[in-house]
């Protein structure tokens, strides 16, 4: 029938189900609680109360609070990968503007979600949390390594360290620099823009070599 929505469009237009609303409320409650205390000090009953549901409802959606944190981290990763898409989707050569936008967006995203990210970092002594964090970082390794390899294959970047190793090193640098910045540990202090510019310069130099301009 002309004008009728497709099945996928109809599904997309449906309002969130009651289960979707409850699940989102639990994640929002966890993120709020992490603003004030470490993950180890947040109880599942407390998360449920803050979300306005009974404790048993939490376990319907998540087997543990660590699994709920993984969901929050997954959302942050999706956001970061989306903002990095112009840089990662296809080779551009030494595109200072694209890398700069990616780094500025990355710094901004860490600032918005710093409570979740820092709470997870602080809880990495727990084996499950450490596994979740490593899996989160690994989501970025493959696309960055693929971009490095593609730029080299096209002659835009010189040969160098293994692309996966270089990707891990660059991401580890970002992780530590962004963590210190989010905690306010930089001495002297730097603005978000200064940090993004420094990361941009370092990534361009590491991947393409030579000057960044």
Automatic annotation (TrEMBL):
Instruction: Specify the taxonomic lineage.
Output: Bacteria, Bacillati, Actinomycetota, Thermoleophilia, Solirubrobacterales
Does the UniProt entry include the keyword DNA-binding? Answer: yes
- Indicate the residues that the entry says bind DNA: 43-62
Q: Quote the PROSITE patterns the UniProt record gives.
A: HTH_TETR_2 (PS50977)
Q: What is this protein identified as?
A: TetR/AcrR family transcriptional regulator
Q: Which PANTHER family match?
A: HTH-TYPE TRANSCRIPTIONAL REGULATOR ETHR (PTHR30055:SF184), HTH-TYPE TRANSCRIPTIONAL REGULATOR RUTR (PTHR30055)
Q: What molecular function does GO assign, one term? A: DNA-binding transcription factor activity
Q: Where is the HTH tetR-type domain?
A: 20-80
Keywords linked to the UniProt accession: DNA-binding
SUPFAM superfamilies in the record: Homeodomain-like (SSF46689), Tetracyclin repressor-like, C-terminal domain (SSF48498)
